[in-house]
Amino acid sequence: MKTALKNILAGAALPALLAGTAFAQDYGDFGGYTLRVKLIGGAQYEPLYATISEWEAATGARVEILSRKNHFELDREIKQDIAAGTLNWCVGSNHTSFAPQYGNIYADLNELIAPEVLAAFTPLLLEHSTVDGRLVQLPRHSDVSNLFYIKSLFEDAENQAAFAAEYGYDLSPPETWDQVRDQALFFANPPDFFGTQFVGKDEAITGRFYERLVSNGGAMFDADWNPTFNSAEGVAALQWFVDLYNAGAVPVGVPNYLWDDTGLGFASGTVALNLDWGGWSAFFNDPDNSAIAGDVGVLRAPMGDAGVRTGWSGSHSFSITTSCDNTAAAASFVTFLTDHDRQMIEARMGILPTRTAVWDDALAEFSASGNDFMVEVFSTFRTSMAEDAFTPPLIAEWIEVSNALWPRLQAAMVGDMSVQEALDAAAEEAREIMEEAGYL
Amino acid sequence: MIRILRTKRQALTPFLLLTPALLTMLFVVAVPLIFSFYTSMTGYRLTRPETIENFVWFRNYLRLFENSDFWAAFLRTIIFLAIALNVEFLLGLGIALLINKITWGQRTLRTIMMFPMMFSPILVGFQFKFIFNDNIGILNNALQSLGLSTQAIPWLVDANLAMFSIIFAEVWMSTSVFAILLLAGLFAMPRDPIEAARVDGCNSWQVFRHITLPFLMPFAFIAMTIRSLDVARAYDIVAVMTGGGPAGRTELLWTLIARVGYDNARMGQANAMAYVSTILSIAFTYYFYTKLVAARRYMGGAQ
Amino acid sequence: MSTIASRAQVRRRIRAVGLWLTTFLLMIIICLPGLWVVLSAFRPNREILAKPPIWVPEQLTLNNFGKIFGFGAEQVGIPVLAYFTNSMIIAMTSTVIALIIGVGGGYAFARFRFRFKNGLFLGLMLFRAVPGIALSLPIFILWSRLGLIDAQLGLIIVYVSLNVPFTIWLIDGFFRQIPISLSEAAQVDGCTRWQAFWRIEFPLARSGIAAAGVFAFLTSWNEYALASQLTRTTDSKTLPVGLMDFTAQFTIDWAGMSAMAVIIIVPALILTFLVQKHLISGLTFGGVKG
């Protein structure tokens, strides 16, 4: 399976080298112009940038990459640029959760990019990319979490019998978060094996709490922006995390876990069920990196009390500054980076595309090469991306509210506060933030 | 003592010698400091540059006084500094004395001793984040393999262990600084007083206590001073290892300031915090400086 | 009589060997966490992060280094050569400048009496006591006005000021250890003050200067927080900033990062080992004071 994937990668690289030609679209002529850009860096993002030279060849422009950093450093840098008035660049990587913070430094792409180009994108994702009615970013790839699990555990007859005896229903991959709790408690054998796990700090735990809140029928804010996450739904959501933590069904270190810890933990084969991003799927099934390669199942994220599936989602995207001196070139560049062929490069690595057609073509490619696992992954994620995905409230204060909330979530987990106390305290802080920002 | 320097030209010499040092400090520290002091009295938000004109006098400072998270971090930073610096000193002294006794192969040992100094703080952070990981970290795995523990110890989560872990990482990185400075002090040490004391019948402890240690103290205080200034480097370690969590259990002033200033973009408030934490740094520095002066006087060194 | 003497000699030798071994073992134990990083650089991720742990490496590989340099189709290379060059230039230049400034300043404090002496000394320290986090934004804004963002010079200036107080104090301490009578004697013999400094005091303080140099170099070589804010591209990004290339939003390539760590550590280690020679001259200089 791995070799198959490699062949696809090699096959993709070759035609790209041979042909700097034949684009479905005309990217214009910007001879002599130098486009200044800031891009998110990191292994999984880089292969796309290798194709920038094709755009340069097609348009005659030159691309100067001013910085290439991970997301959080890029965020800090852009804020510094706003502060120092050094927005002397045109295109920047962006993300749906972070975009609202940057105010109006980014242009409305509805005015810069042709409607027929925009029509090729998944409509829901363009909606998520819109802040205050302005399309401030063009989604490059997207992500949502679904449930990965170790298949053999569920197929084991002994496990099935023991589970049915203990919980009174049959053991099968879970449909609800209550079942996840039961199964996690059932499989857990700390410190060697854990039922499930979750990220425990920063915006990561805020997001996980938030999607559970929504799946229980709750909301972060009411229609007037009063914080409402300390509702009964919120308490139930947080209680789920606290219960699993106290029962030892998750690693005792989770309050300090971020995405790398949960991803590597599941790949180490010591966790039964793992809600994680689509971007990890290829890694989980790669024998070089994962102890459970070939034994990984995936299914749509389970439902909460309200019958709603969790679907916290976000897209990596490109934005164009309003201060850009050549918006036409910038628009051509971001269109190029998100066009069909470019998205195929990332989709082949298992990253979720934002164009409807790329879903079809990537699925067809996986299925043609007999990569059943990736077919399963892409089918599952396609469904949840279309039906379950939602973003955090797209307001500038989101990160600040999140920073008020997550230490309280942790406090409840490690027993410093009760669940209700923790949420009340966080809601109080969130209210102050919203008041100061003029919402209340 | 002969006093040679009396002419006007001579009196200027020290200032000329110091000019470059003062200029760099003015340019890189004083000017930015004035700017950040100004912003600490504004409602400056990083993402809204126009807010820098929103002058609020001492509101940011007044808010700090009722901010219990800030004072908890303040106290925790003092504890962190006090424990880390003392442990580093004691360990460094032990290592320096041990290596000083070695005659053959000392250069190799000294290089090995300085090995942790080669590690960038950010790398130290990642390294100990992986080592202290409760599930796949090598420390817990080693303890479990050796049968010393049957459960995963939450190094980075438990209130005391989390502080222990970040202090451990800081001590690991910086003990060499003390060791090498104290070793340099030992090398610079005159042999005669020790031999004289031996002839007079002093035992090793007495020689150490009354001759070696007083001679070393200025070096120790230089090291302390330097470390207390530089210890803010620990920000990189803590940010990577715990980010101040969980539930604020390892929140130090620096992680708090960075979050408020950059993530929350409230630079005005963050700079007010930074000013209060500057006072803390200055207090530590001043304390060690007076100790340094006293130790030198005790030694009768040049004033 | 002679047997007693030789027995004592043997005992002394055994004790010396024992002491060396003990010290060596202790040092190795202290270094273990770091050695684990070095070992990780030669192992695949699967093995490093395995549970149950794989204590004895089953597979040692240079793949992690290959990936960094962009060999093989697996990963786009990281511009480690550019980072390395930047780090070298920035660390070396700022160290040399800080040492020149520091020797002047240290000498002034150790050998002259002048007005505001204590105030200035304290002032230098207090300036340095300002936490970097309080300075990072103002420095950024100032530097962007001066065009020093993403320039080697911008970082060099910052690192010089980081290291100057440090070098001054250290060198000051070493000059104080040198008896003033040596320089005075030379001046009685007809040397100028400058000659006396250059021929007598400077060589004696060499070990102190070497130590200050090592510290200044290591500080600049390893600094991350300010570098991450003031650098942007391969024009100025240093090795520690490059470490972050191995972290993406969701993943950390620990094996790759370890390999990069080795690339950072080895030059620093070699340099330290070489400079050790000059530190040894401190031994002889110790005998001078008496």
Architecture blueprint of SSEs:
The complex is a heterotrimer of chains A (440), B (303) and C (290).
Chain A: H1 2-18, E1 34-40, H2 46-49, H3 52-59, E2 62-69, H4 71-84, E3 91-95, H5 115-118, H6 123-128, E4 130-131, E5 134-135, E6 138-150, H7 151-155, H8 157-167, H9 177-187, H10 202-215, H11 232-246, H12 259-267, E7 273-277, H13 281-284, E8 296-299, E9 313-320, H14 327-337, H15 340-348, H16 356-368, H17 372-387, H18 398-413, H19 419-436
Parallel strand pairs in A: 1-2, 1-3
Antiparallel strand pairs in A: 3-9, 4-5, 6-7, 6-8, 6-9
Helix pairs in contact in A: 10-11, 10-18, 15-16, 16-17, 18-19
Chain B: H1 8-39, H2 59-65, H3 68-101, H4 106-113, H5 121-131, H6 138-145, H7 159-187, H8 192-199, H9 204-230, H10 234-241, H11 253-263, H12 267-299
Chain C: H1 2-40, H2 45-48, H3 63-69, H4 80-111, H5 117-128, H6 132-146, H7 152-177, H8 180-188, H9 193-204, H10 206-222, H11 225-230, H12 239-243, H13 254-289
> Which segments of chain B are poorly predicted (pLDDT under 50) over 5 or more consecutive residues?
1-6
**Number of continuous helical runs of chain A:** 19
- What is the radius of gyration of chain A? 22 Å
| Percent of residues in beta strands of chain A | 5-15%
Oligomer: heterotrimer
Secondary-structure element order of chain A, as H and E? HEHHEHEHHEEEHHHHHHEHEEHHHHHH
Please tell me how large the radius of gyration of chain B is. Answer: 24 Å
Extended strand count of chain B: 0
The H/E string of chain B reads HHHHHHHHHHHH
Average predicted local confidence, pLDDT of chain A: 89
Ends distance of chain B: 12 Å
Q: What structural class results from the helix and strand content of chain B?
A: mainly alpha
Please report the number of helical segments of chain B: 12
Kindly state the mean pLDDT of chain B as a whole number?
83
Give the structural class of chain A. alpha+beta
Residue windows where pLDDT falls under 50 for at least 5 positions of chain A: 1-22
How many strands of chain A? Answer: 9
Principal-axis shape of chain B equals globular
**Biggest interface in this structure?**
B-C, 107 and 109 residues
Percent of residues in helices of chain A comes to 40-55%
